[in-house]
Each structure stands twice: as C-alpha cells, then as structure tokens.
Write a structure and sequence with these properties.
The chain is built from 8 helices and 14 strands. It has about 350 residues and is α/β, with parallel strands linked by helices. The strands form 2 sheets. The chain has a 12-stranded mixed beta sheet, with helices on both faces. A two-stranded antiparallel sheet has the order 1-2. Helix 6 crosses helix 7. The longest helix has 19 residues. The two termini are about 25 Å apart. Bound molecules: zinc ion. Zinc ion binds next to strand 10.
Amino acid sequence: MDTFRNTLLDWPQAAPTAAIHTLTDADFIRSLELGPQQWWKTWQAQRLAELLQWVGKNDFTSLPVLRREEFRVQFGAHPGRSPQEHGALTQIHSSGSTGVPVAFWRSELAMRINFSHYLADHRRQSRDLHAALAVIAAMQDPHTGSHNPVAGDPWIYPGAQLVRNAVQFTMLEHAQWVCKHTPEYLATTATTLSNILSLIELNRLPAPRVAQILTSSGIVTPELRMRARRILGASIRDRYACDELGPLAFQCPQSDDYYHVAVANAIVEAVAADGQLAPEGICGNLLATGLHQWASPALRYELGEMAAIHPHCPACGVSVPTLSQLTRRKQSPTHSLPGVAP
Ligand SMILES: [Zn+2]
C-alpha cells in the first residue's frame, strides 16, 4: 500500500518515462498482434526499409543467409554503431545456443523493445500481475540467501518477484525452494523444470499449485507439459528467443502447438534446403531478422532450429505468422529468463 501511495497517487506527473515507454510498447505490440494483417505488414515493411538503408542493401529477399560464424567474425571485434536516437550501446557476450561464443552490441532501444515484449506476453497469457513470480535463471547475479527478492514495480508488475541464481544451488534445493515459496508463476528452463518435477515426485515433496510455468529455452515436450500439469497443476507457456535478436515467438494462449511470431521485433522465415521459402505448414530452417537490432544487424540470421510457418494462428485466429512443430536445440542458451526483468 505504501508503494502505491508513494507512486501511483502522483500520477500523471510522477510517472517514470521508462514505465510509460514499456506500457505504451506493450499496447502497441498487442495492437499489431490483434489487429488486421495490414497493420503489422505495413509497419514491418517500413521498419525493414529503414534497416536495409542503414546496412546499405536494397533487396531483402536476395540477401544471403547469415551464419552464426559470420556474425561472430563480423561483430566480435567491431565497435557497434547505431543512430543516436537508439541510445547508448552495450556489448553483450553470449556463449549462445550453439556453443559458439559471440559478442555483439545492443542499443537502449533494442533492450527496451525486448523488455516490453515480455510485459505484452503477460497480457497475452492473462497473468495476474499482482501474483508472485519465481525465476530460476543461470544469468542472474549471484546473491546471498535463497533468492534475490525484487520489489514489485507498481507501474509494470506490482507482484513480488523471487529471482534465484540457477547455478548456486542443486536441483533438489531448487525443488524444495519452489515447494516452500508456492509461486503463482515460475520461470525457468525446460531442463530445470523437468529436474524439479522428478525430484518433487521422487522425494514426495509437498507440490505447490502453480498457475503457469514460463519456459524460455530447451525442448518443451508434450510429456513435460503433462508432468507439469499432473504434479504442479501448471500450464507451460513457452517463449522462443535468441540472444542476438531477443524475442522471436510466444506460445499461443489457446494452444500448446502454436507460437505467434513477435512481429514487432523480428521477421521470421522458414526456408527449405534449396534456400527457398518452405511451403505453408512444412518445416524449414528458421531465419530471423531483428528490426531494432541495428547496432550489430542480423538479417536473415540462421537460428539453427526448425519450424513450419502458418500465415495466421490456426488455434486462436490472430493474423500474425505462427510457428508450429518448433524444434529447439537441446543445449540451453545462456540468455536470461525474463519475467518482467530481461
Ligand atoms: Zn494463437
């Protein structure tokens, strides 16, 4: 209540700029997803034209596929650059999902858009933002105690967040921690989740009721979904992202099989072995183009993963491209697991 009194009662003059950006971005992201197809197509065409001009290219479809090794060589040793209005640059080091380390640059704007997509996903999945979110992630800073308690942000996510460094504890300790804190939502990798479920059963721990589990890497199998539902009563809501470009697709709120492409962040293509676009519904190699990632641009970037693309979501009907049969790599990427914080 004190937080509310000290902040929200001073609306609108005291509303922080960053919060206003995030809230507006999330609304815009949802508008593109839920609006008519023409909205996101027009918006993407404009962003792509600007990006192509920035990198000095003309024709998007004739661009060669950018391999990870080429990306690594191109940007690892180069100072990043981006327009001044994109803000300051930060160098990101990633061991990456293929195990090939890469270093690249990211602007404040690109970070902001990444972050805003995760708030948009809270809305997509109808989450109660006053409920507790527990996060177990490898890239979190080391902390003392069982977790780092993050005070809720009254503007963005008023609920408490319990953020725990994955590598400081054993899997059994993670399982015991989840049982003790009974969070409404849990964010972690598919592998960690699978281990926690096994250990809860094996040790007959008092399993909490979890509403949703937010996964961000690894392979979410139908069997893992069944176990999460049986043991924790939880529905898995998977997110698909890569370190270099940020969020790429989010699980449909009405289906375990489909993922809505994050059209406000990236263009995602599926190509056949001959380099041509795979026919609708047929699996191809995934390529992604980051629309805000101008500091170390990745156009038609090979993700090393496969999926089929549909022109709209067969489950809920939204008019954005939708992935099915998404085949993830087994090795977990190192990117953080955003709940609210990226
Ligand atoms: Zn859908």
